[in-house]
């Protein structure tokens, strides 16, 4: 409901509710021009109808009164709900509209049609530009949207639009601390040294070619691929592993590859790199990650399975196509064994 912002207004409302034996369980107050909007969660006794509450609230100056039935989930405070909604949108871009609906308390949020008006005069309908590619229409019948609420959506858009490719730390099975970060041209020498330390077998597993060293002309494309991202595993200033995610012609799919220095293999580093690639892929809208391996390459399949992403393996020609579902919850893992 909407109330005048003056001393005692809310106290009179709660006193009226107490007179009907209603127990107040939660309260949120949003300042708006000329007053406030109050959301009150109450436990009502038997025989107290919504019409009775509307009459009492209006008698104490309440306007734009709306009542809806609630359950225990509505007792979560708005900050917690907003954080959960933001987390869901970061994990899955398709959940952005629902996150906005939760943050605004809107009746509905849907993609905006091209040419949609910025808003209507009443404030019950707003068009929100979260990113360059995401515009949503939010509607709410019971009360107009407030500037405070719209500021929360602006904060959400800043979070969604931020660079989430910053460094993250992992610990290997031997207790070593490793930093995962995006590669830059300044890492060229360290990446060249990584390849020089790798055995011929490890290089063949990654490139499917007989390399003894990395051609210098490859360094720039490895560190700044034109259609993807390169992730480095750093032990101090030393690169001990790297992985790439590259866009394909299918917008839902990206191709991945991993290289880990011999002495760092079987310590969970490949698993950490693949898991981080899955997060990067979800953030850019990819649903699937695909890797091509030789039939004898069990290391990538083992690391991919340990990452927690659902894995499917099938043989195509003389290679194994390893598909990871990037948008899936880690609790739902299905591993399809390789063909013998």
UniProtKB/TrEMBL annotation:
UniProt xrefs under InterPro entries: ACT-like_dom_sf, ACT_dom, Acyl_CoA_acyltransferase, Bact_Acetyltransf, GNAT_dom
Report domain ACT positions. Answer: 1-72
**UniProt GO molecular function:** acyltransferase activity, transferring groups other than amino-acyl groups
Q: Does the keyword NADP apply?
A: no
Q: Which SUPFAM superfamilies match?
A: ACT-like (SSF55021), Acyl-CoA N-acyltransferases (Nat) (SSF55729)
Task: Identify the Gene3D superfamilies for this entry.
Answer: 3.30.70.260, 3.40.630.30
Write down the PROSITE patterns for this protein, in alphabetical order.
ACT, GNAT
CDD domains, alphabetized: ACT (cd02116), NAT_SF (cd04301)
Would the keyword Acyltransferase turn up in this protein's UniProt record? yes
Q: Which UniProt keywords apply?
A: Acyltransferase, Transferase
N-acetyltransferase domain: residues covered: 178-325
PANTHER family named in the record? AMINOALKYLPHOSPHONATE N-ACETYLTRANSFERASE-RELATED-RELATED
The identity of this protein, by name, is ACT domain-containing protein
Where is the organism placed in the taxonomic lineage, from the top? Bacteria, Bacillati, Actinomycetota, Actinomycetes, Pseudonocardiales
